[in-house]
Amino acid sequence: MWLGKTTPSRTLPPGSYPVDQLFDMLPPYAPQLFTAEVSGGTPPALDVVASRVFEVPVADRPHQLAANGDLDDTTRCGRELPFPGLSPTDARAGLKAVWNLLCRNRGGSFEYIAHRLRGSGPNPHRTLVINGRYGFGPQGVGFHALMFSPDELKGNQIMGWAPWTRTQAETIFMYAIEQRRARQRANARGELMAGTHFTLEHGFGWEGQYYFYDWVMLGERPVLTVLDSRHASPQYLPPNRWFPDDEWMVRPAFLVVGKRAHNLAGSGYVALWLDTATFEPLWTAFYTDAGIVQSFTGLTLKWSAAYQRHVMLGESTVELAVDGVPVGGTVFEAPFCSILHYPERHVDASAFSGQHLGTTDFVWGVRPAGCE
């Protein structure tokens, strides 16, 4: 069911195409959501541009997986692909693809300053404004978010640390300003956050410890995606604002599916469409244990030549009812200029110890002048 109507690669010259002519180059569920974007009886048109090569950092030596799935050396995770040139026929190809996803270059640590989580669809939820930071180190990855609005949530925070190895557990702490204390969350990955349609696993396409799921690669297929936005801030098609109004590329993608293997997994299954060269998660679908789709996610990415990486400007998630009807959606939006990189910042678990929430003043970056 995840492959849908797999189509062989076909020539798609640059141009503007009615979206209903492109359904065979979109993942399942995207066509039915695009159909809801029809305005005045006319389906939206997508501007398709020529694909191109993106030179991302890759490992300069072969890597190996341990029997338990751990990567042999995580020193460069967050900076380069450990398994470049991956093929669907390689042993443990699905797990290797997920390690490429987790370790792909993020330009070191980075911050999103005052980004928005805005409701989408016919009954959008309220807009939230948040600071967020991610840090990648040789032992793991950390995240931290600080809420600015709405007023009743201002000052609330969440912080977590996910070690690269199976033997160390993830920690997630929440801090509520009215309670003035941090508390650890035992299992929060499947819970919707702050009235949005995002869970923790929706972050940046998919985030989590690799062993939460058993991963298999089902094959390769071409898909349409926004891999180098023409905009400085994400723009979306009316009326529901679920999909980017942008330049689309046809990219080969590995379809990798994970089945729940740990009680901390947020879903029964996760399907990832990973770019075969960069391993960016172009599309993601989340399913129940019974295989019923729960939500569907697509990213808007922009290439940063300075850091040799794709920066996420937007992420659109649509929650679906059991019958596949959209319930509502959330869109992550960040101007390109508001994303700050810290390539040399040292990161370890102590930098993301949630026990310090509410007792430590964290220093955040500042948007450059003129950044809207």
Report the sheet-strand fraction: 35-45%
Number of helices: 2
Q: Give average pLDDT, whole number.
A: 91
Tell me the major beta sheet: 16 strands, mixed
CATH class: Mainly Beta
Radius of gyration equals 20 Å
CATH topology: outer membrane lipoprotein receptor (LolB), chain A
Structural class by helix and strand composition: mainly beta
DSSP summary, beta strand count: 16
Helix content estimate? under 10%
Shape: globular
Number of domains: 1
**Which blocks of ≥5 consecutive residues have pLDDT under 50?**
2-6
Name of the CATH homologous superfamily: Lipoprotein localisation LolA/LolB/LppX
Termini gap: 42 Å
Q: Any idea what the CATH architecture is?
A: Clam
Report on this structure.
By secondary structure, the protein is mainly β. The chain has one domain (34-356): outer membrane lipoprotein receptor (LolB), chain A (Clam). The chain contains 2 helices and 16 strands. It has a 16-stranded mixed β-sheet that branches. A hairpin with a 7-residue loop joins strand 3 (109-120) and strand 4. The longest helix has 11 residues, at 93-103.
Task: Summarize this structure briefly.
The protein has a single domain (34-356), classed as outer membrane lipoprotein receptor (LolB), chain A, CATH 2.50.20. It has two helices and 16 strands.
Task: Give structural attributes.
outer membrane lipoprotein receptor (LolB), chain A, mainly beta, 16-stranded mixed β-sheet, 2 helices, about 375 residues, about 5% helix, globular
Secondary structure layout:
Blueprint: E1 15-18, H1 30-35, E2 45-48, H2 93-103, E3 109-120, E4 128-136, E5 140-149, E6 157-163, E7 171-176, E8 181-184, E9 213-225, E10 247-260, E11 269-275, E12 281-287, E13 293-304, E14 309-320, E15 326-333, E16 339-342
Parallel strand pairs: 2-10
Antiparallel strand pairs: 1-2, 3-4, 3-15, 3-16, 4-5, 5-6, 6-7, 7-8, 9-10, 10-11, 11-12, 12-13, 13-14, 14-15
